[in-house]
């Protein structure tokens, strides 16, 4: 078992920021035909033992629920398989930044996967301010929690969820076609 | 020059459609909780969430909230979904792929019947 797509990794790392209690999370993704690079920066509490963070047995979650912390070690393994890298920078009381690069042309690179549903799922956490910048070659799109609140208010009905989801898919489709 | 399109631009174009959705604020009679921990994500919980949104929307159900939680500690049976309806015992369903998600919406949410074969846990803890 493991995370199967690059979108899953983005999701999982951003979920760490959400769970850590970050108020602001900035996600940047730059993709070309050669590489997939992302950066996820939060203003959460930071990580005390950054050097241990890739250890699959390092987790601060309740041991009743979770005995292992797999997210970051999955990411490291998957990125390094493509001759890419992962970097975690963290400062207690300031926040955490995770950067990763995957070489898409490498035979072991996982597929990009569904970024639209990843963003949608993250954006449903409306108590967190997200800023997402997603680029594919020269084309980018940007999504902010602030704008969603302005136009939708709370995403509290299936109509709104469906509409937000469709909008994100449309943005994603646009940068794929251009 | 990179071109940046924003969600805001797109929303401006669709402002009229958006106005209609914005109005109705209904009370909720329950919620569906999708576990979105690492094991949930690995097992396809995003596709499950997607299917739930589609199914609720298709059936015009607006009194059920959809929320996400961390790992529920039931990795072997992910994706898992918890259904909490007011005045009912909470139910956790396992192996909720998109097809099973639709079934849960149709049976449990719409018809008020449990989907017996998918239940992995019932009750508070
Ligand atoms: N953005 C962050 N802010 C603060 N702490 C973090 C952050 N990201 C990770 N951590 C810490 O690093 C630990 C390991 O993270 P990792 O994603 O590898 O595993 P996990 O989240 O504990 O479990 P899993 O991802 O398998 O559900 C976490 O338990 C948490 O203590
Ligand atoms: Mg994690």
Task: Furnish the topology, listing elements before pairings.
The complex is a heterodimer of chains A (178) and B (125).
Chain A lengths: L5 H14 L4 E8 L3 E8 L28 H10 L4 E7 L3 E9 L11 H9 L5 E8 L2 E6 H8 L5 H20 L1
Parallel strand pairs in A: 1-5
Antiparallel strand pairs in A: 1-2, 2-4, 3-4, 5-6
Helix pairs in contact in A: 1-2, 1-3, 3-5
Chain B lengths: L2 E4 H7 L1 H9 L6 E6 L2 H6 L1 H14 L5 E6 L11 E5 L5 E3 L4 H14 L7 E4 L3
Parallel strand pairs in B: 2-3
Antiparallel strand pairs in B: 2-4, 4-5, 5-6
The structure holds adenosine-5'-triphosphate and magnesium ion.
Largest interface: A-B, 53 and 47 residues
Q: What's the number of extended β-strand segments of chain A?
A: 6
How much of the sequence lies in strands of chain A comes to: 25-35%
> What is the top-level CATH class of chain A?
Alpha Beta
Helix/sheet category of chain A: alpha+beta
Shape of chain A: globular
User: Which CATH class of chain B is shown?
Assistant: Alpha Beta
Overall pLDDT metric of chain A: 92
Distinct ligands, ions and cofactors found in the model: adenosine-5'-triphosphate, magnesium ion
Number of helices of chain A: 5
């Amino acid at each position: 078992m493991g995370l199967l797509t690059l979108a899953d990794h983005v999701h999982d790392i951003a979920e760490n920021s959400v769970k850590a209690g970050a108020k602001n999370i900035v996600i940047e993704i730059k993709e070309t035909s050669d590489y997939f690079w992302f950066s996820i920066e939060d203003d959460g509490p930071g990580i005390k033992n950054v050097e241990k963070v890739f250890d699959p047995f390092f987790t601060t979650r309740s041991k009743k629920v979770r005995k292992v912390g797999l997210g970051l070690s999955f990411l490291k393994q998957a990125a390094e398989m493509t001759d890419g890298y992962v970097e975690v920078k963290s400062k207690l009381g300031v926040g955490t930044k995770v950067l990763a690069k995957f070489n898409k042309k490498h035979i072991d690179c996982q597929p990009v996967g569904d970024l639209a549903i990843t963003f949608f799922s993250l954006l449903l956490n409306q108590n967190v301010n997200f800023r997402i910048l997603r680029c594919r070659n020269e084309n980018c799109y940007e999504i902010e929690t602030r704008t969603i609140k302005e136009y939708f208010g709370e995403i509290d009905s299936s109509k709104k969820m469906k509409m937000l989801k469709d909008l994100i898919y449309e943005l994603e489709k646009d940068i794929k076609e251009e | 020059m990179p071109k940046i399109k924003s969600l805001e631009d797109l929303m401006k174009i669709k402002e009229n459609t958006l106005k209609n959705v914005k109005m109705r604020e209904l009370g909720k009679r329950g919620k569906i909780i999708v576990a979105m921990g690492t094991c949930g994500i690995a097992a396809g919980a995003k596709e499950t969430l997607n299917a739930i949104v589609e199914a609720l929307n298709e059936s015009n159900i607006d009194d059920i909230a959809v929320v996400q939680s961390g790992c529920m500690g039931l990795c072997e049976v992910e994706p898992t979904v918890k259904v909490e309806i007011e005045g009912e015992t909470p139910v956790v369903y396992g192996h909720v792929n998109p097809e099973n998600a639709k079934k849960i919406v149709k049976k449990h949410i719409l018809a008020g019947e449990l989907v017996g074969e998918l239940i992995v846990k019932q009750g508070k803890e």
